[in-house]
Amino acid sequence: MSEGRPGRRTGLRRAARGVGILLVGATLSVTGVGLFLTTEAGNRVLLRLALGRINAGLDQATLTVGALHTDLWDGVVLRQIALHTHGGETLVAADRAVVTWDLVPLLQRRLAIPQVRLDRPVVDLRTDPATGRLALLDALGLAASEPDDAPPTPWGGLDGALDVASIEVRDGTVRFDGGEVDDLQVDGRL
User: Fold this and answer.
1) What long-range pairs does 45-54 form, CB within 8 A, spacing at least 24?
2) pLDDT of residue 143
3) Low-confidence residues of the chain, pLDDT below 70?
4) Most buried residue, 35, 70, 132, 174, by CB count within 10 Å?
5) Closest to 119 (Cα-Cα) out of 59, 79, 148, 155
6) Cα–chain-centroid distance for residue 188?
């Protein structure tokens, strides 16, 4: 009877050792992926995947981003961002966008973004002479549709809460029919 116990202990030790090795391996894998995503090569992969998904949803426009720099702990910096029509007209552009985040709220299924900053954005709000509609809305597939009698459905695109504390726009320009506004100073909270 006492002979069965040492074999049982050995089996438990092997199982515990195996679980420990799996946990260490999983931790190293997650850490490795996280570190890779902060490298230049990882940033290129993230950018290619993100732009592929975004542009697949745009029928009449293309989003381009010149560079992406991620910091796992602090946020992301996008450079040379532009939304172009397929005809090549630039509808929205910015030299740089900085998005900071706080990781702790992710544990509660919340994405907390303390700040979004746009440097030198340009937004074109001119109308298309042929249709009289904003070219930007048409390019995004948001052109006005016929009203229906049904109440609007709340948007539920996120599986959790999104909290954006502030949006800062530096040296912005808005173009519209009849002119443009330069050096736009905008502060906002969502």
Assistant:
1) 46/70
2) 59
3) 1-8, 34, 143-160, 178-190
4) 70
5) 79
6) 19
Q: Does the residue 10 lie in any domain?
A: no
- Three-state SS at 1: coil
Quote the CA–CA distance of 143 and 134 in Å, as a whole number. Answer: 8
Residue 130 lies in a domain: yes
**HSE of 153, CA atoms in CB hemisphere, 13 A:** 4
CA dihedral of 172, 173, 174, 178, whole degrees rounded to 10: 160
**Please, are residues 97 and 74 in contact by the beta-carbon 8 Å criterion?**
no
Chain position carrying tokens 């092997």: 14
The 10s digit of each residue's pLDDT in 78-100 is 999 999 988 888 999 999 999 99
pTM over 0.70: no
If you average pLDDT over every residue of the chain, what do you get?
Answer: 79
**d(C-alpha 140, C-alpha 91), whole Å:** 10
How many domains would you assign to the chain?
1
Kindly state whether residue 74 falls inside one of the protein's structural domains.
yes
pLDDT, residue 38, reads 77
